[in-house]
Inverse folding.
């Protein structure tokens, strides 16, 4: 076998290995998709403890997949419904999620749910006070979901927004263009979103209400 033939054979082998790896990855994603969907279907009516409705989970999933986000932060895990939707999307983009919960019982229930859904490898779940931890996280993030204590929304935004990459997205739950649905401080939070330079905010009605804000480059 001459040198040219060896190069050609090597190229064919590399291509064959790549095709096998791609097929395996596709099969693994298919199996994961079936497992996550089955988990969500079986738990459809059992989400409480301030979890998001499925329509909002789907909206978060769509934003991540559509934009190819890979470095996500969730403030307020509860028992994991939104985190499952976010991590499911990240399984398709090659990303990971940091999620923070202060309540120990909800945190451990979320861990079980992440495991049962088959998504634990995509999730770094922290039992911590987000008031303290969010300030110390280095970032950068390209996707943030906020669903924690409503009177602290503006402070969470100020702490994490500088760590959001250009082109990234900051989302928050229980928010509408008429203000918030979650109590004091929410009107001020919406005004802050709308007055932040280079931040484009839209509101998703239905479900629990979502603000979806994209960080743009200065013009």
């Amino acid at each position: 076998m001459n040198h040219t033939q060896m190069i050609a054979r090597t190229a064919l082998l590399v291509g064959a290995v790549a095709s096998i790896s791609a097929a395996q990855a596709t099969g693994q994603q298919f199996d994961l998709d079936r497992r996550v969907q089955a988990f969500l279907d079986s738990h459809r009516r059992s989400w409480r403890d301030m979890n998001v409705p499925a329509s909002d989970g789907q909206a978060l999933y769509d934003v991540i997949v559509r934009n190819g986000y890979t470095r996500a932060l969730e403030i307020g895990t509860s028992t994991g419904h939104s985190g499952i939707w976010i991590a499911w999307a990240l399984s398709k983009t090659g990303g990971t999620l940091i999620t923070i919960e202060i309540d120990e019982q909800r945190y451990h229930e979320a861990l079980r749910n992440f495991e049962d859904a088959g998504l634990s490898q995509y999730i770094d779940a922290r039992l911590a006070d987000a008031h303290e931890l969010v300030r110390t996280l280095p970032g950068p993030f390209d996707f943030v979901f906020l669903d924690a204590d409503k009177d602290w929304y503006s402070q969470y935004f100020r702490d994490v927004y500088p760590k959001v990459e250009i082109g990234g997205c900051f989302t928050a739950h229980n928010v509408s263009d008429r203000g918030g649905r979650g109590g004091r401080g929410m009107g001020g939070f919406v005004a802050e979103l709308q007055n932040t330079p280079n931040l484009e905010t839209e509101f998703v009605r239905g479900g629990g209400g979502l603000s979806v804000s994209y960080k743009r480059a200065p013009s």
The first strand starts at residue 71 and ends at 75. The mean pLDDT is 89. Residues 41 and 87 are 16 Å apart (CA to CA).
